[in-house]
Amino acid sequence: MLKTRIIPCLDVIKNKVVKGINFRNIRVMGNAVEMAKYYSLSGADELCMLDINASYQNRKTFIKTVESIAKVINIPLTVGGGVSDLSDITDLLNAGADKVSINSAAVKNPKLIRQASLRHGSQCIVVAIDGKRHKDKMRVVIKGGREITKNELITWAKKVQSLGAGEILMTSMDTDGVQNGFDSNMLKKVTSNVNIPVIASGGVGSLEHFYLGHLTRSTGLLAASVFHSRKYKIKTVKKYLISKGVPVRL
Amino acid sequence: MKKKVIGLIDGQSGNIGSITKAIKDIIKGRPYQLKIIKSHFNYSSFDKIILPGQGAYATLMSNLKKFKIIKPLKKYLENNSSYLGICVGMQILSNQGYEDKITKGLGIINGDIKKFRNKKLIIPHMGWNTINLNKDDTIITNSFDKRDFYFVHSYIFQNIKKSDVLAFTLYGQKFPSIVKKGNIYGVQFHPEKSHKHGLNLIKNYILKS
């Protein structure tokens, strides 16, 4: 039976893991390579890392960090943040990423999804979608939620699937960073309209939130703060999920 | 003592970084050497060949053709020499693949590579799933039975002889997760991404065969 994946997410600037609430009030949580190694050893099913400040200077250090992480873990690594074209994707794959996640660039230029999946295979192209409610509609937002696009969320999710995305990393900007639980309503809408894997992201604060995330039919559950702050160990989350009858890898 | 030569084929089908590192860690301090194969090679100068692959069947076959690897690889396999195919590196052992278009494979293990039958499944089959061994094996020993490995694929080995299936996995249907014929092994999952059990599997393949 396919197991639900528990995926710690590292928001990275250069080589440091940081955390901010709704992308503001950034604080350093630790060294990215050390934290990645720790998560790989302690039972993470996959690792996600995002360059949240992809300026030209920071980028070089970030790519070196990806290389260092790929060398010390032996679970799949998804890398995103600041991916704007095909050459960025190639650079990250060459640095050791197994999957690359595209966000704003896909919204601005949807063809990029098709080109990337044709060149590298759908299995390594993740489209990250940030969703937010706006005037009673679920919309796609970019720039960390600062810009609301014209794209209706479900239409966009279906479109990225048809363009060849292998997976959707779905973050609700309405719940991200506040630890009140995943946006079950938004996630269910997405999972019931696509048949590629969906990773739920944004809002985990308690063990029960992981279980509720699983009930949305998301096959991956992503979390940051609860792991970085050592509130929960990955094993603790998995044991809890097993007690609720959710299949996970121990 | 003469070192055993392991060939790792780079078919430009996904990243070979993880598998390269895994092999190097295993053979460190042992009488083995690793050679990366990128073009035509002398099939008799290798003791083992590993072919990792990701993405499409047709892409890997056309790359291997372009790099003039198909002919020596076929000879190598027809000699029943030791081989480990990973993901698409396993799939191309079949007669043909049906991804995008029909592509002829290496024809070493009878069968076809076709999409999962159940239309309601989430595709790709992505994540950790359990392998169930059909029989004990010198390399894939009982200790691997019921262990989880990392999968990412949309196509599976079909119309394969039961005796060529070493392990199966369940995802909407039963499908072969390890195939074996003589000294030729193929795994549908990614051992190089499957943490300790994956690394142990690669280790057994290198050291026990």
Q: What's the number of domains of chain A?
A: 1
The CATH class assignment of chain B is Alpha Beta
Order of helices and strands of chain A: EEEHEHEHEHHEEEHEHEHEHH
Tell me the number of structural domains of chain B: 1
Q: If you compute it from the alpha carbons, what radius of gyration of chain A comes out, rounded to the nearest whole angstrom? A: 16 Å
Identify the CATH homologous superfamily of chain A.
Answer: Aldolase class I
The CATH class of chain A: Alpha Beta
Q: Shape of chain B, please? A: globular
Give the largest chain-chain interface (CB within 8 Å).
A-B, 31 and 36 residues
Mean residue pLDDT of chain A: 95
Low-confidence stretches of chain B: none
| Poorly predicted parts of chain A | none
Distance between the termini of chain A: 13 Å
CATH topology of chain B: Rossmann fold
Q: What is the annotated CATH architecture of chain B? A: 3-Layer(aba) Sandwich
Structural class of chain B: alpha/beta
Percent of residues in beta strands of chain A:
25-35%
Q: Please outline the major beta sheet of chain B.
A: 8 strands, mixed
